[in-house]
Design brief:
single chain, 155 residues, mainly alpha, Ferritin, elongated, Ferritin-like_SF
């Protein structure tokens, strides 16, 4: 059944493509944050263990929202490691970094994800896609806050 919500198919595909990149970055960041939660050690263990849990829990909910928005636009949501690896701007962690390297990596990845989100705004604005703009605004705010929290741990 065809969608008739006021957006052209071309616009829906373009916005969904941008959201797919955001989804890949978000899922990759979720996985990395969860990995670091499991493996963090050092003098800041408790605070970082808790911070990472808060952040990966928020990301777990976010990836579902992003994927559902892509589906609402009538497009398939990427959902495999292969698809995410092709779409993400982030690098996976190698080995088990120090607590400080973990914080620095997650800080950089949240900032990269924020930039990915910002890159989708013009496409969504041109398509008059207020629902995607609202989602993108919420995600941008979450990543900027996460980056601030991580930056605070570095002093």
């Amino acid at each position: 059944m065809a969608l008739n919500t006021g957006m052209s198919e071309e616009d829906r595909k373009a916005v969904a493509a941008g959201l797919s990149r955001v989804l890949a970055d978000s899922y990759t960041l979720y996985l990395k944050t969860h990995n670091f939660h499991w493996n963090v050690t050092g003098p800041n263990f408790q605070s970082l263990h808790n911070l990472f849990e808060t952040q990966y829990t928020e990301l777990a909910a976010a990836v579902d929202e992003i994927a559902e928005r892509i589906r609402t636009l009538g497009q398939p949501a990427p959902g495999s490691y292969k698809a995410f690896a092709e779409l993400t701007s982030l690098q996976e962690a190698e080995g088990v970094p120090s607590w400080k390297e973990m914080v620095e990596a997650l800080l950089a990845d949240n900032e990269t994800t924020a930039r990915s989100i910002r890159s989708v705004f013009p496409t969504a604005e041109a398509a008059n896609d207020e629902a995607s703009l609202d989602l993108l605004t919420q995600r941008l705010s979450a990543h900027e806050k996460a980056a601030w929290m991580l930056r605070a741990h570095l002093g």
